[in-house]
Amino acid sequence: MATRRQFLVGAGGAAAGLAVGATTGALLVGDDDRARAEAAAARQQFMEAADAGERVARLGTRRVIWNTTVTEPIAAITFDDGPTPEYTPRILDALATAGVTATFNVMGWNGVHHRDVLREVVAAGHEIGNHTWDHRDLTSLDVHQTREELVRCKEEVEAVIGRPFTSFRPPRGELTGYALRVAAELGYDTYIWSVTRGPGNATSVTEIGDYLGRIVIAGDVLGLHDGIGQGTFDPTASFARALADRRELEVRALPAALAQIAGRGITLMSANALLSRSEPPPVGGAGPTPP
User: Which end of the chain is more exposed for a tag (fewer CB within 10 A), N or C?
Assistant: First the structure.
């Protein structure tokens, strides 16, 4: 198994540009300062390798997934922006009651500042995805900033949880070609989503729960939240308060939505589990339409 230093140096090498799996050993909390310094130096080397795409980049096949084609009644459930003490523990309780394993796309800053909550997510058996360091709009960043967003999240969160990420979810689903390149270098498939909690002006827990309960169909990737993204850094701003209100409604609607989805015979699971049980999409075929 490659070390993180080998991975970062190899992925940023001037000639190779070869894809390396994200299966590197993770730096554990409590490791000595020298190990952390070495990891920081390796990351810096990787950051300095950023370019606009001129070098050879034999990065294999990485996928961008909105939803999948399946032959069984299964779908994925994902949560972005956390972990947070306000929302994540209640979501974990709802998932445990329903017997559902999800993908939590971690915003690195939150993961580092709420380590105990993050470790609860991992201990419960959920997948962990990379959701950048601090939820910046990738379409507004240069190549160095883009690389930093993904790599810093990877490094600092893996140091907490002791295991690699499994995938990538861009903030707000907004991508650039360079962001996809960095995700490929890190060994990630990229997940968007096919359904969310529904109309943004919905203010009834029952309305949101019913919407989620009836809208999810086989092959969907359901995108929900356990944090407020950029609102984390200015929680008193009007947009942050509005996001917090939306998230609260989502969390309160989740138990009923999970029960209704299960009652329709659909099994929810993590994003990678769904993908592993999916079929290649038909060539030129349209996606499924909700009944």
Answer: C
CB contact at 8 A, 220 and 76:
yes
Please check whether residue 85 lies inside any domain of the structure: yes
The first and second tokens of residue 190, run together, are 């990229």
DSSP result, 76-126: EEEEES---TTTHHHHHHHHHHHT---EEEE-HHHHHHTHHHHHHHHHTT-
Q: Is the pTM of this model over 0.90?
A: no
Q: Which domain holds residue 111?
A: 63-276
Q: Is residue 52 situated within a structural domain?
A: no
Give the Cα separation of 28 and 50 in Å (integer). Answer: 27
**Other C-beta atoms lying within 10 Å of the C-beta of residue 24:** 21
Task: Name the domain count of the chain.
Answer: 1
The tokens of 107 are what?
């915003």
- CATH number, domain at 74? 3.20.20.370
User: Is 207 part of a structural domain of the chain?
Assistant: yes
Count of alpha carbons within 13 angstroms of residue 124, beta-carbon side: 27
Mean pLDDT (the chain) is 85
User: Which residue in this structure is represented by tokens 């939590």?
Assistant: 104
Q: Is 181 helix (H, G, I), strand (E, B) or coil?
A: helix
> Are 138 and 103 within 8 A, CB to CB?
no
Residue 30 counted as domain residue: no
Whether residue 280 is preceded by a cis peptide bond, meaning omega within 30 degrees of 0, is: no
The string of pLDDT tens digits covering residues 114-145 is: 999 999 999 999 999 999 999 999 999 999 99
Rounded to whole angstroms, the Cα distance separating 105 from 192 reads: 11
User: Catalytic residue among 114, 126, 131, 225, which?
Assistant: 225
Q: Would residue 142 show up in a list of annotated catalytic residues for this protein? A: no
pLDDT in tens, 66-90: 999 999 999 999 999 999 999 999 9
Burial zone of 95 (CB within 10 Å; 0-12 exposed, 13-18 middle, 19+ buried) = buried
Instruction: Examine the residue annotation and report whether 245 is marked as an active-site residue of this protein.
Output: no
